[in-house]
Amino acid sequence: MDKALDVTIYHNPDCGTSRNTLALIRNASIEPTVIEYLKNAPDRATLVDLVQRAGLPVRGAVREKGTPFMELGLNDPATTDEQLIDAMLAHPILINRPFVGVRLCRPSEVVLDILPAPQRAAFSKEDGEAVVDEQGKRIK
Question: φ and ψ at 108, to 5 degrees?
């Protein structure tokens, strides 16, 4: 693959945002490296690197909804970044998604800001929201 078009997505196929992001990448005629992080969790160094390169605080990379976040007491403001990383490594569902390159792509159309190729066709999210027009231009 052309290095300029080498795109990696940390993907959860059960997540609509992640599926929409993957579809937008493919709509730019890019076949990304797909890492299903629930099956192949990143190691500590990779996870820390993803969070740092995304420019997020560790807490900003933690998913709360549909996870054991509350049960693990991670909502306690005294929880350290190291404890949050440990929890994400032990429970990968706590890793917010999808990460593409150096961005957390929530909402999914954030990926349009970083893709190295233009969209090739119209695109609507799974819920019907139009994101890209027939000329491959971002709608909003």
Answer: -60, -35
Residue 61: name the closest of 97, 23, 108 by CA: 97
* Residues in the chain, total: 140
CATH number for the domain that contains residue 68: 3.40.30.10
pTM of the model: 0.88
Q: Note whether residue 55 is domain-resident.
A: yes
Residue with tokens 């893709």: 115
Write the single-letter amino acid at 104.
L
Residue of 7, 9, 15, 51 marked active site: 15
Q: What is the number of structural domains in the chain?
A: 1
> Is 123:63 a contact under the CB 8 Å cutoff?
no
In a domain, 138, yes or no: no
Residue 139: inside a domain: no
Q: Is residue 58 part of a domain?
A: yes
Known catalytic membership, residue 15: yes
pLDDT by residue, tens only, the chain of 140 residues:
444 458 999 999 999 999 999 999 999 999 999 999 999 999 999 999 999 999 999 999 999 999 999 999 999 999 999 999 999 999 999 999 999 988 999 999 999 999 989 999 999 999 999 999 999 999 97
Show the domain range for 59. Answer: 3-132
